[in-house]
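check this:
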Amino acid sequence: MSEFIRFLLISNVSLMVVWAGYWLFLRKTTFHSLNRGYLLLGSVVSLLMPFVPVGSTTTQQIIGLQLPAIEVGRSLLPTVTEAGEVNWLLVAYALGAMIALGLFVRAVSSMIRLLNESDSEIIEGQLVLRSDKAGPFSFLSIIHLPKKLPLSGLRTILKHEIAHVELGHSYDVLWLSFLRILFWFNPALALYQRSLREIHEYQADALTHISSSKEHYVKVQLDQLFQLPSELSFANSFHNSNDLKKRIEMIYSEKTSKWGGMRYFMVLPLVAIIGLLAACTETPTEAIQEEVEKVYKEADVMPEFPGGMPELMQYMVESIKYPKELQEANIAGKVFVRFVVDTEGKVGQVEVVKSLHEQLDAEAVRVISGMPDWTPGKKDGKAVNVELVLPISYTLE
């Protein structure tokens, strides 16, 4: 499996597992700061999970009988220049990411244009930009309020937006926007982003209605229901009719007891699932050996390639393709590949135990996996499974 595809797979599934934990156990609690930290930390951990060395082939110790190194070089190998070698899946991914990035840049440009066209004003000692083209919103340290905002609710709404600024919610939104560009193909990530935005509003609501009655604060929200909303995907907005019911319910809900914090321990099994996910994407040799007959490191009679080592070297030299672009980039060195010759002489359980480059690793695995049958090894007169390690040296002239 391509390492980048593996990264995308594990990261996306991990993100959804983290979100599922929030939705199932935490979304109705009033521990808003903890819930925010959980989702943010979960997003970072999800990106790191593919790099956890669980069953990773690149960290395994090189054990087993090591065959003589096969040296391949520029003059001996055909180069890979055919269009068929292009990884169209990665091309499609890159194209989608570029489109997602373009949409984000366009949205940022629209907001900047709106703010440049707004008038500045000092309200309650706070610099505020005002226009009639959008509803109340904040981004980083910038606060925008509509000119037609009734005076009765202006101070309350301003406090709400100041809370967003002081809590640094814009940085969370930018981080999730980055993830949505990176994982543009995953529509479920919108649920993750929406949940984090809900927490932002709960936090800002809690800080705002402390200084006024809950009834007054809810009335201000309802008064804004039919006002011009802000649809900026990366800005914090006071008005969001879709979440208004949830926000009002949260304002009037009782504070979650300390015992409610036990719910966070209920998320631990989901964290274990993420770890298992990373482990299951690669099967270490030891796990394979438990499922099949015993694999020997040595045998009385070692396996032999048809024709012996000279034919093996000839086979490898004629079969391996050394990509021209890697030669021109001066990428050279050794790849160590471990494989097992079974009792019927067939080659299996092929894995890289010392990596050089993703393309060169994959090419070595491809060629070794396609080897003709060997003469199997023997121990005590019986054919046995034998593990071998073949170094492949990519050299430049």
